[in-house]
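Appendix B. Extra example for self-study. Work through it before the problem class; the solution is given directly after the inputs so you can check yourself.
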Amino acid sequence: MTAQDHSATGPARAEAGTGRHKLGRRVLPYAMLSPAVIVTLAIVFFPMLQTAWMSLHEYVLFRPDDFTFIGFENFVTAFNDEVFWISLWHTIIWIGITIPAQVLLGLVTALLLNQEFPWRPVARALIIIPWALPSVVIALMWVWIYDSNYGVLNDFLLRLGLIEQAVPWLANPDTALGAIILTLTWQGFPFFAVMILAGLQSIPKSYYEAASLDGASTWQQFRYITLPGISGVLVTSVLLRTIWVANSFDVIFVMTGGGPGYATYTLPLYAFVKARTNLDFGYGSALAVLFTMLLMVIVLLYLRRTGKAVE
Amino acid sequence: MRQKTLGLAASLLALTAGMASAESTVRFWYHFDNADNPMDELVSTFEEQNPEITVEAENIPWNSYYDNLYTSIIGGNAPDAAMVKMFAQPRLIEMGALEPIGDRIDSWEGKDDLQDNLLELTVAEDGSSYYLPVQYVVLYMYYRPDMFEELGLEVPQTCEEFREAANALTRDTDDDGQTDVYGFGFRGGKGGHDHWASFTLGREGADLTDNIESEAAVAGTQFVVDLFREDGVFPPSAPNDGFQETIGAFKAGKTAMTIHHIGSANGMVEALGDKVSAAPVPECGGGRWTAYGDESTAVMSSAEDKDAAWKWISFLSEAGNNALFNEATGQLPVTKTDRDEWSLHPKRFVEATAESLPFANLLPNRPETSDFVNTVWPVAMQRALTGEITAEEMNAEIAELYSE
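Solution. Structure tokens for the complete assembly:
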């Protein structure tokens, strides 16, 4: 700005200066954005395209020279693959239970933390711990909690007389997935608690005062003031969390590796095992592409519905 | 702190100095579980003897060792030499990743000191040699002599005796209604195929690649399933248990028998003293089968300086160096000289290893074996143990893999 003021002595020069300035203003945003965009293109979009391309080929890593185009055969194989359907079903259960459980627990926690009580800052800091711990640490910790020989959970339930024999939570196909879902719920609810708490604090107190003067019950206040007040935050955080939970398999991988049998296989885990362990990159990519498309459909449906509700 | 920094600076200087004068570098991948890693000592001894070569030895975690190795080969960033097992050999050959070293072995002075038979065991299907043995183990059965004595039991020689003993050993020792000791610690997770194989593949008429669906082979799988589902002699967590869990449970006195090799003997003695001993695995259905645990080194075909890489790996299989190497892994040296002077393990475990050698086997040298070990066996075994599929169905899945 100042440089231009000094250099602009004649009217013609001033015009040229503004022209250059305008051009600069038009180019500058692109110039500033391009490093980020180029990096994103290189490390996200390029591998994505490569995955899509690989999914149309028979490509097994230990036969690197054999890269045959086979069209949609990998996808047909997936639809006829029993394990694909088992994994898909587990993924639906995985998302369908984890997210609502995290939201509910997060909401209750946020409402509690929004009350006045001594040591509130400490409680708020403590609540974030599960979210701040690395997934691997959480997974290993819960493996020990669930252990059938030394686990604290079995010990607790035995002492209370709720079970007669120690239950191998992670080794039993009926309980393994549920046990991991509980772990992930515990890990993820602080995220919702913190987000919702932020939303709650942005609601002016006067709304509640006015409502109570008009004789609104606590439930009515919650339904007509609190919920609309946090809906924006809620929609965004549910969307983010759905994508994260859907894609996350580190906790499952550490806790059971997908076992026993296929009892805790989800689609991302199955794609990983196929590609990284069996080195079948063609089929693994096809699974990943299928899962991405399914997730995109869910996200679009969700945004369309909730977008309207929020407006 | 200051001293540490100085030391670091000094070693950095030494490193750069070494790099400046070295004519070639050997990147070597290996996997050691043991925290006392003698690799630095081996490397510095080697570099003193061969000042023109620098060795960069990298310890890769075992769980993803082969995933990393295969991907590095494809990515064009493979090490120059690596520790390798036989089951991976067909795949590595198929990828064109291995350098034939038969001629180098023949002209190597350490060849005569290698124990008999080891070079024959590691020869490839095409008749060439790609591997140089560096350590070996044989799987046998660990048991608790004190518990056997308390119950008046003999060490089981057959599968039938084994089952009886396992049932007797599974008991509630403090009368709280909970089972405190289980007869056998079965490894149902990845790597447990050796346990299953000992009960299955020794049977007459059972073979992993040719007739795994035979009556005898299915009887073997059924035997394992029955031990868990009918008799309850494995801990309930058996379907997911891996190395840490099975060995940990035995050390803690939760199980009375398990199968592993001499690599865990010293840890067991540390935990249990005289209350642990070893014997060959029982005879099942007319034959015995146990796993030969091999470990070799190989020069990769992509190595820039293959002579340097060979010098380094042959150095590891020479008397003295090989002993030091095996002190870290807890396995057995491949040289005759080191074997004769070996004193690292209590005698009873060395003897159990020697007694097991006559019926020790490698898994079939075929590309499918990697998938058998990593996914097909663990998934099928876990499903059979939890009752989702039958023994016949499990063996049929294995047969399908090998018939592809």
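Self-check: Residues 1-22 of chain B have pLDDT under 50 and may be disordered. If your reasoning did not lead you there, revisit section 3.
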